[in-house]
Amino acid sequence: MRSTRGLRGPGLGLCSAVMAACLVAASAQAATDAYPAGGGTFSGSAQGWQVTDASCNVPAFCTASGGYDGANGNPAGSIAANTTISVNLLTLFKSTVTVQSPDFTVAGAGDGTLHLDRQFDSGSLVDLAPQASYTVTLIDRTAGGQSVPLTESLSSASGFIGKDSAVSVKVGHVYAISIATETSSTVAGTAFGGGTTSLRFDNVSLKVQTSGDGAGSRGGAGGLTDARLLSLVKGSLVGPARLKGNRLWVKVRCPAAVGRTCRIAVRGMLRKRKPATLTRRVKVRKGKAKRAVLKVKPRARKQVATRKRLLFKVTVRAGKAKATFHKRLKLVRR
């Protein structure tokens, strides 16, 4: 009888080759590109980042500056926005520093994640109770536009903490990341001895999915991520809003491109953090629309009744993806 031993080696080799090919394909599907290329870790240098603005409201006693900080980071190495106060500052200070990445061209389209680690160090200015805030802007030089994926205010010192935000980019477009900071005191100095406070950033990067399923920071089947859903549903609240008594009627829709049923929560707002109505939740099939009826809160009825336009907060869920936006609609009476 013919031996089968000679067949086992080639057969196993073929299986191994097929498995390896599958692993390579799977790896390719999960691949991401990070921008700026090689930048944002600040390991050994500023990696092309530059200070584009630095100023303080009391220039005789306050100096705003920024640049590479090799001693501090996560790990060591960061880009810093510094405020240095000289002796005998007898008033409140406010300084601004803006740092910006080198330009980069995105090779893959779709959804991505902007990440950074930030630290606020009060230094020897702790007696002035300094506070800080920063705003991250993604500049699209090709289209001439920009978006603000991340902003945060800090009222006390903290170590390096990671922050993430979903973004959407286009193939071949040239982008840059800008971080504008503001540092100010809440207590005026007296016979103050001076010192420095710093807002530092490390591991700043924009990671973009390069493959097939287009999965982003969170999503479900079909590549629907938070950022993709947001881009699809920004027009899902249709005006005008109609007011009759203590009820508001608004039209919500689920774009067909979402590819599944939308669960939509909508609420009228006097301003972004002050609700005017209760929240109304509706399910809307893809490509369809519904009217949602919102009940106006008793304490907000007089204010709503005098408005010509009203702000609405809309949260849309589709699969595992979630998107929230605000939109102002014309208000008419029935």
Please give the structural blueprint:
Blueprint: H1 5-29, E1 32-35, E2 50-56, E3 62-73, E4 76-85, E5 94-100, E6 104-105, E7 110-121, E8 130-140, E9 145-154, E10 158-169, E11 174-185, E12 195-209, H2 226-233, E13 237-244, E14 247-253, E15 262-271, E16 274-275, E17 280-284, E18 289-295, H3 301-306, E19 309-318, E20 321-333
Parallel strand pairs: 13-20
Antiparallel strand pairs: 1-12, 2-5, 3-4, 4-12, 5-11, 6-11, 7-10, 7-12, 8-9, 8-11, 13-14, 14-18, 15-16, 15-17, 15-19, 19-20
Structure, explained:
The chain has helices at 5-29, 226-233, 301-306; strands spanning 32-35, 50-56, 62-73, 76-85, 94-100, 104-105, 110-121, 130-140, 145-154, 158-169, 174-185, 195-209, 237-244, 247-253, 262-271, 274-275, 280-284, 289-295, 309-318, 321-333. The protein has 3 helices and 20 strands. Helices cover 12% and strands 53% of the residues. Strands 13, 14, 15, 16, 17, 18, 19 and 20 form an 8-stranded mixed beta sheet that branches. Strands 1, 3, 4, 7, 10 and 12 form a 6-stranded antiparallel beta sheet that branches. The protein has 334 residues and is mainly beta. The protein has 2 domains: 34-209, Sandwich (Jelly Rolls); 221-333, Immunoglobulin-like (Sandwich). The longest helix has 25 residues, at 5-29. It is flat.
Summarize the structure.
This protein is mainly beta. It has 3 helices and 20 strands. It is about 10% helix and about 55% strand.
